[in-house]
Amino acid sequence: MFTVRCILGTSAKYLTSLPAPRQQIKLQNRMSTLLRPVAAVCQVTATPDKKANFSACKQLVEEAKGRGASMVFLPEAFDYIGSSREETLSLSESLTGDTISQYSQLARKLEVWLSLGGFHERGHNWESDRRIYNSHIIINDKGEIISVYRKSHLFDVELPEKGVSLKESAFTIPGPTLVSPVQTPIGKVGLGICYDLRFPELSLALQRQGADILTYPSAFTVATGAAHWEVLLRARAIETQCFVLAAAQVGRHHEKRSSYGHALAVDPWGEVLGDCGGEKPGMVLVEIDLEKVSSTRRNMPVQQHRRNTDFYQSLEKS
Ligand SMILES: O=C(O)CNC(=O)[C@H](CS)NC(=O)CCC(=O)C(=O)O
């Protein structure tokens, strides 16, 4: 079950049925002050089959656009989830490969912005070291790559009681830097990926650089997702007073791997606006009202109340 908040569908239909053009313009002007931009937060079940994954994602992007979204968010590993390290590596591409050019064409054709939450990108020394980046790519409505953030915290975790054992650093290069929030039609978007969500320093750094919206496209494990996912996302939203949009992988990718799902949209007060559930692919559509960001920050100015870095380091120095 998932919540959908979208008022564009019916209003747009109403507009096209209006006879007098002048009346239409008047109404359109009034509506543009009433309507907020809409973001689509998606969840998918990627497999090792890149072609099938693209066609599933394309369908979601088309549906989202048809329902009024100006930006669509796809999760980490939207391109594929490999069934072995070797397969994960061999399926990887560069930013100039077929996968990203297909998405670029899709964005241009539909005139929609895309957040591609975690692309398996061949590293700069691929020929010699066969290592990849986990890259979050923003594509604008002209099909141009606007920003690339490479995941900086890698998921090397052993939880024997929960059946979780992943060592991302065995094949992935940690990203060297954060990237500045990107101006998009829904607001300024700060980029993270999945496990980055557990490091509030990153979200605060993006907030300080002007982010209105934080994004954590993910492929959370079922065990860690059930325990931590929603709490972490809401905490990041509450601390930074940003919207938090987290596209997700859901369900069974292959015989050895499943993901938690629950792609989520959270507002700057920490309220969950939409949840895609834990069962199957889908999306939530949410209006992004940036006035919610400013009023939340005005009413409770936590960023102004924050003490300087020295203050928090005073214990280490004493
Ligand atoms: O491997 C790929 O192809 C795509 N990458 C991932 O799925 C990554 C690295 S293994 N997964 C996570 O970071 C899960 C984090 C998580 O579950 C937590 O923080 O609890």
From TrEMBL:
Domain CN hydrolase, which positions? 36-290
Pfam families per the UniProt record, alphabetical:
CN_hydrolase
Q: For the region Disordered, what residue ranges are annotated?
A: 297-318
Could you tell me which Gene3D superfamilies the record lists for this protein? Carbon-nitrogen hydrolase (3.60.110.10)
User: What Enzyme Commission number(s) apply to this enzyme?
Assistant: 3.5.1.128
As one GO molecular function, the record gives: deaminated glutathione amidase activity
- Chain coiled-coil ranges: none
- Superkingdom in the source lineage: Eukaryota
EC class, as a word, reads hydrolase
| Keyword entries, A-Z | Hydrolase
The record's section on SUPFAM superfamilies has: Carbon-nitrogen hydrolase
What the entry lists under PANTHER family is as follows: DEAMINATED GLUTATHIONE AMIDASE, NITRILASE-RELATED
The family line of this record is: Belongs to the carbon-nitrogen hydrolase superfamily. NIT1/NIT2 family.
Protein name from the UniProt record: Deaminated glutathione amidase
Which source organism? Dissostichus eleginoides
